[in-house]
Amino acid sequence: MVQPRRSDERVVYSTAGGKICPQCQQPVSACRCSKKPAGPRGDGNVRVRRESKGRRGKVMTVIVGLALEEAALAELAAKLKKKLGTGGAVKDGAIEIQGDHRDTLVTMLREMGHSAKPAGG
């Protein structure tokens, strides 16, 4: 026999919807109270650094700190890759360009109006 729930009890998990949001009592996948519009991730201090750790010795140039939306970040990455004639990607709010292009990218970003500076050794 199923007992009725008390008014102070709440559902924590349901097999129908998975985890339940504590504020709106909706499944987390359909929760509207915690979904905020994603703003730019960068802090405005644009840093260009070289990375080779965890990349089997291959060098990547990583640009972090750009205060741009995802679409604008992808567009900027496409422009930079095309000008340099190389590949790359946008991951976690950072632009990754294949190869060692740190000095060139700093110059290009400054020409585009960003206050870029080289970071790291």
Question: Which helices and strands occur, and which strands form pairs?
Answer:
Blueprint: E1 13-14, E2 18-19, E3 46-51, E4 60-64, H1 70-84, E5 88-91, E6 94-98, H2 102-111, E7 116-118
Tell me the CATH architecture of the largest domain.
2-Layer Sandwich
DSSP helix fraction: 10-25%
Rg (C-alpha, Å)? 22 Å
Tell me how many strands there are.
7
Q: What is the residue-averaged pLDDT?
A: 80
The CATH superfamily of the largest domain is SUI1-like domain
Helix and strand element order: EEEEHEEHE
- Uncertain regions spanning at least 5 consecutive residues: none
- Number of domain units: 2
Anisotropy-based shape:
elongated
Label this structure with key terms.
121 residues; alpha+beta; Translation Initiation Factor Eif1; 5-stranded mixed sheet; two-stranded antiparallel sheet; 2 helices; 22% strand
Overview of the molecule:
The chain has two helices and seven strands; from the N terminus they run ββββαββαβ. The protein is α+β, with helices and mostly antiparallel strands and 121 residues long. It has two domains: 8-36, no CATH class; 46-118, Translation Initiation Factor Eif1 (2-Layer Sandwich). The longest helix is centred in the middle third of the chain and has 15 residues, at 70-84. It is elongated. 15% of the residues are buried. The model has no long low-confidence stretch (mean pLDDT 80).
